[in-house]
Design brief:
The protein is of the alpha/beta class and 97 residues long. The protein is built from three helices and four strands. It has a four-stranded parallel β-sheet, sandwiched between helices.
Length: 97
């Protein structure tokens, strides 16, 4: 299964670590999951360019997994609206305790 991770990136100094941990969890959930992680994109692109790339990743994903902080991110809110519009399957990852 191809899984795209969505969550807060801009303004979160630990976003790379957070997304890496989510990727590891999702890879372990099922054998052979391919995780599409936007946090590994290089620095230096415009916000609109990041969103175009992320929408393309969403298009090829089987499912989008939203991290618990997705509501704090304008980009993740756009991704959620895109999922709703395109009828892409998604789920919200529970906050680990």
């Amino acid at each position: 299964m191809k899984i795209y991770i969505a969550g807060k990136i801009f303004g979160d100094p630990l976003f790379r670590e957070k997304f890496a941990a989510a990727q590891k969890t999702l890879e372990m959930e099922g054998g052979g999951n391919v995780v599409l992680n936007p946090a590994i994109l290089p620095d230096g692109l415009a916000v609109a360019e990041y969103m175009r790339i992320c929408f393309a990743m969403i298009d090829v994903a089987d499912v989008v997994v939203f991290l618990p902080d997705w509501r704090l991110s304008g980009g993740a809110q756009l991704e959620k609206a895109y999922c709703d519009y395109t009828e892409k399957t998604y789920r919200i990852m529970e906050e680990s305790r």
